[in-house]
Each structure stands twice: as C-alpha cells, then as structure tokens.
Amino acid sequence: MGVDWELVKSGPDGAEHGVLLLPGGANAARSYSEVMAQPVLAGTRLVAATLPGNVGTPPPTDFSIENYARLAAELAADYKCGVVVGFSMGASVALEMAASRAFKGPLVLLGISLSERDEPAFFRAIVRLGIVLGSLPSAMLMRMTAIAVRTARVSDEHRSQMRADFRSNDPRVLRSGLRAYLEYLGRHESPAKRLCDAGVATWVVHAEKGDGGLTDEERRALEACPRTKLITIPGTCYFLPDEEPERVAEIIAEAISNAE
Predict the structure, then answer these.
(1) For residue range 103-135, what is the model confidence (pLDDT) as tens digits?
(2) For 16, what's the count of Cα atoms within 13 Å in the CB-facing half-sphere?
(3) With CB atoms 3.0 to 4.6 Å apart as the test, which of 22, 80, 95, 97 could cross-link to 103 if both were Cys?
(4) In this structure, what CATH number is given to the domain that contains residue 113?
(5) Which of 90, 76, 75 is nearest to 26 (CA)?
(6) Is the Cα torsion angle 230, 218, 52, 239 positive or negative in sign?
(7) Which residue from 148, 157, 156 is spatially nearest to 237, judged by alpha carbons?
C-alpha cells in the first residue's frame, strides 16, 4: 500500500459489510471509537485509519488530497470496505476517492468543506501565515483546537484522549498537510457538481453551528443531486464523530443499506 496506516478495527473479519472511517486532519483513528461502539453497527467490519502524517504518524511524501485518496482507496479495497466515512479533511479525501472513480460505494461526509469559503477566515489566514512564519501558526491552531475541546460534549476520558491526540501532532508536518488541504479546496470550480457527477449515494452531514457549512450555491447544487442527502444536526458541534456518535452511526447504517 506504500504507507503504514495507524488503524483501529472492530467487528468480525467475515462481516457482510465493511466501512472505512477517515478522521479529520490532526485527528486520530480512535476519534471514531464511540461511533464504532454503537449497537446499530454491531456485526459490521469497521476500519478507522489515521491520515498519514497526523497525530505523530509517519508523513507521506505527497500531502495532496489526491494522494491521500489513492492510498485510502487501496486501503478500502484491502479491507473490502464498501462504504467510506470521512470527517473534515477526511471527508475531502472520501470525496476525491469517488470523484476520481477510485471508489464507487456510498459516502458519508461529515463536516465537509467543498471550497475555501466554507472554512473560517481565521483558519485560512493561519494556513497562509505558515508560508512565511513556518510552523508557528500551526502550533497556534492546535492551541485554539485545545480550547474547543474543553467545550466538547464528550466524557472526561474521551476529552483527555482528544487532547493527547492533538498534542501529538508535529506543527511542521501539520503545516504541510493543511497547506495541501487548502490548495485542494481551491482546485475545482464546482466541487458540489463534481461530487454529484461521481454518481455515488452520499450523505452530507453538518451541525447547525460549529463545524463549518456550505455556501448557498453549493447547497442548491447538492439538493438538486438525486443521490445526495443533506442532513443538519441541531445545535453546536465541532467534532461530529466524537460528539454525535449515535446519530453518526445511524447515518452510516443507512449508507450501509445502500451498499451493493
């Protein structure tokens, strides 16, 4: 596969359905632990994979989302995963897997940004500051993320786990990954149309507040797409897999029911 993945696995090897779970940038595979423990997914083979270079894992030689998508498609094939779930940057990887025709199964895209405009202005500024200030802005971003973790609706144990994972990120490596991610968000003229043209069943999930969103134009394009379902989870949420595991698991189960 060309890369050593950090994996968290659950469920029987011989399960009828397999699901690949891709966390966001700076997040670990175990951020899906609560989702994987939900009864609705019992009997499903679940494979969560930290994106290489994040949370202290060995970095790839190519940080582009296209390369991550190629590697993740190989991983999905190796573990016979017919559904891919992605959060934030992981959702962009999942989108690219489908758009490049490297993966043809259903997608669940959590908190995805389709364009630069979907990301907060402060995030875009921090990433661009990294071009001239090196790893300092990335370190600053991790400190800001630690503040958001304080208010996350998770157990104290899970909160400690999240903090430890964010602290494990190397700001120098993170800088490269975030820059490649932001470049990807500006790469295509109409990512929403590109997702629709991929022809795969897709669930696009955002919280009402906190995890970004879509422009009105993007939302209209996705609402017009016959194989795309938009879901808004009420309330404020920055970390969908961590904070809304039950609802996320229900959506994954719906996607599984659409897998061939």
Answers:
(1) 999 999 999 999 999 988 888 888 888 877 788
(2) 9
(3) 97
(4) 3.40.50.1820
(5) 90
(6) negative
(7) 148
Q: In the numeric block, which tokens belong to residue 244? A: 């809304």
Print the SS3 string covering the chain. Answer: CCCCCEEEEECCCCCCCEEEEECCCCCCHHHHHHHHCCHHHCCCEEEEEECCCCCCCCCCCCCCHHHHHHHHHHHHHHCCCCEEEEECHHHHHHHHHHHCCCCCCCEEEECCCCCHHHCCHHHHHHHHHHHHHCCHHHHHHHHHHHHHHHCCCCCHHHHHHHHHHHHCCCHHHHHHHHHHHHHHHCCCCCHHHHHHHCCCCEEEEEEEECCCCCCHHHHHHHHCCCCEEEEEEEEECCCHHHHCHHHHHHHHHHHHCCCC
Q: Which two tokens stand for residue 85?
A: 């779930």
1 occurs within a structural domain: no
CB contact at 8 A, 180 and 92 = no
- C-beta neighbour count of 139 within 10 angstroms: 17
Torsions phi, psi for 205 (to 5 deg): -120, 130
Domain count, the chain: 1
Question: What digits encode the pLDDT tens for the residues 42-97?
Answer: 999 999 999 999 999 999 999 999 999 999 999 999 999 999 999 999 999 999 99
Here the tokens at position 30 are 């175990």
Range of the domain at 202: 6-256
Separation between Cα atoms, residue 223 and residue 103, nearest integer Å: 22
Q: Chain-centre distance of CA 54, in angstroms?
A: 12
Residue 87 belongs to a domain: yes
